[in-house]
Amino acid sequence: MSGGIIPCPEALTVLLAAIGLGRTALGLTVIVAFSVGLAGVLVGLGLILVSARASLAGLRQCGSGQLVQWLPMVSAAVVTVLGLVITVDGIGEFAD
Q1: Residue 62 has what pLDDT?
Q2: SS3 5
Q3: Quick one: which of 10, 9, 27 has its CA closest to 18?
Q4: What's the sign of the alpha-carbon dihedral 73, 74, 77, 79?
Q5: What single string gives the DSSP state of each residue in 27-61?
Q6: CA 41 to chain centre
Q7: Contact 25, 15 (CB under 8 A)
Q8: Full 3-state SS string of 68-89
Q9: Which of 8, 14, 9 has its CA nearest to residue 28?
């Protein structure tokens, strides 16, 4: 979902590679296709969130439930554990 917030460095890489290969038109076509696809995904996510607003509002109203109280902590723990696993795996690959 953060794809539309900052410029995409991959697009610059594709464009520079295409210019280096003398295929600038192909590079621009690939970047336009990527941008249209990204815009479609972001619009689709927005539409899904807007249409699910009633369900999410109902979840907020039962905010005293145990799940809603623990959900931020559980999601932070999952992200932390995944980050540690990826870091350990990367260090293991680097050491080999």
Answers
A1: 57
A2: coil
A3: 27
A4: negative
A5: HHHHHHHHHHHHHHHHHHHHHHHHHTHHHHHHHHH
A6: 10
A7: no
A8: HHHHHHHHHHHHHHHHHHHHHH
A9: 14
Question: How far is CA 91 from each of CA 45, 95, 96, rounded to the nearest angstrom?
Answer: 35, 6, 9
- Tens-place pLDDT, residues 21-77: 999 999 999 989 988 998 899 899 989 988 888 777 766 665 556 777 788 899 999
Residue 30, amino acid: V
**What pLDDT score was predicted for residue 77?**
95
Report the pLDDT value the prediction gives residue 71, as an integer from 0 to 100: 82
For the chain, the straight-line distance linking the first and the last C-alpha, in angstroms and rounded, comes to 35
Take residue 53 and report the two structure tokens written for it: 């607003």
Q: Which phi and psi (to 5°) does residue 8 adopt?
A: -85, 120
pLDDT at 63: 54
